[in-house]
Design a protein that fits this description.
single chain; 90% helix; CsbD; YjbJ_sf; CsbD family protein
Length: 58
């Protein structure tokens, strides 16, 4: 996994967490769900990058 992808995924995850917390604090269910969605997407991208790396090492 490239450093750039790692940073990008971490940033996406942090933004998602911020949205989720803000949504909870303000009672905005849509923002909260969007935040959770962003976190899941970042985790999936990270997992995909790890799989790619595993195949490259072979």
């Amino acid at each position: 996994m490239s450093l750039r992808d790692t940073i990008k995924n971490a940033a996406k995850k942090l933004v998602g967490r911020a949205k989720e917390v803000t949504g909870k604090a303000t009672g905005n269910d849509k923002l909260e769900a969007e935040g959770r969605s962003d976190q899941v997407k970042a985790n999936l991208r990270q997992a995909a990058e790890k799989v790619k790396d595993a195949f490259r090492k072979r």
